[in-house]
Amino acid sequence: MSELNDLSNVRVVLVEPSHPGNIGGAARAMKTMGLSDLALVNPGRYPDPQAEWRAAGAQDVLESTQVFESVEAAIADAQWVVGTSTRVRRIPWPLMKAEDAVAGIVERQASQKIALLFGRETSGLTNDELQKCHCHLVIPANPEYSSLNLAMAVQVVCYELYRQLEANPVDTNQWDRAPANSAQLEALIEHFEKVLVQSGFLDPDNPGQTMTRLRRLLTRVTPDETEVQMLRGVLKQLAGRAGEK
Fold first, then answer.
1. pTM above threshold 0.85
2. Strands (E), 104-151
3. How many CB atoms lie within 10 A of CB 99?
4. In a domain, 174, yes or no
5. Distance (Å, whole) CA 74 – CA 81
């Protein structure tokens, strides 16, 4: 794999994994496909000898693993977030098969920070966590038994990423500004909600799906850092003018 496509910008995030063997299995799956950035959110048991045993020759991935207390912290610097999901949503979100979602990662990985979220062994990712993602990835499987082991799901996605990069190496997407990361986007959404409540447009006691749909819009268009700053400047001015009346 070329230096341009070394996958150092791709982080695999396991959210509240309960079994340390799955952590080690995920580390091994990552290393075989050229990934090394593993993050854990509130793991049930880690560090643990079972994780080291299952990792086999990927102890270096485990040694560099970062542990976070929240999904928000784990993806704060990510500019493109992909969540694995089998949930049917009331409000549809961009949903892609693994091959198509990985193609989007391939387009971005050389110039953007990517986070791949994998949910809990028993319940996956929550709706709130899924709403922090730009798109949702689904691994096609036997509809009569479609539940994949966590480490196996990581292996499938990592393999697809490696395969596509080997087949079609890509150069960086040239853009005049870097895409906003997850923390910047969250701050913008919070700013929007505050101003919408202050203006009377949004009833905090009965918000409906307004903020969910606004979040979907902003994640779909993937604004860059300057665009986020500009929107926050507009919101600040509008809030100030409303306060004068």
1. yes
2. 114-118, 135-138
3. 13
4. no
5. 11
Q: Please give the structure tokens belonging to residue 159.
A: 């393999």
Instruction: DSSP for 156-222, please give it.
Output: HHHHHHHHHHHHS--PPPP-SSPBP-HHHHHHHHHHHHHHHHHHTSS-TTS-TTHHHHHHHHHHHH-
Residue with tokens 């409303």: 242
- Its domain, for residue 203, covers 182-244
Q: For position 227, what pLDDT does the model report? A: 96
SS3 137: strand
Query: Cα separation of 115 and 118, whole Å?
Result: 10
Q: Is 65 helix (H, G, I), strand (E, B) or coil?
A: coil
CB-based contacts of 143: which residues, under 8 Å, 6+ apart?
none
Question: What are the average pLDDT values for consecutive 10-residue runs of the chain, which has 245 residues?
Answer: 71 98 98 97 97 96 98 98 82 91 93 96 93 94 90 97 87 76 97 95 95 95 95 93 59
Number of domains in the chain: 2
Are residue 144 and residue 230 in the same domain, yes or no? Answer: no
Who's near 75: CB < 8 A, 6+ residues apart?
Answer: 11, 13, 81, 115, 117, 132, 182
Q: Which pLDDT does position 243 carry in this prediction?
A: 63
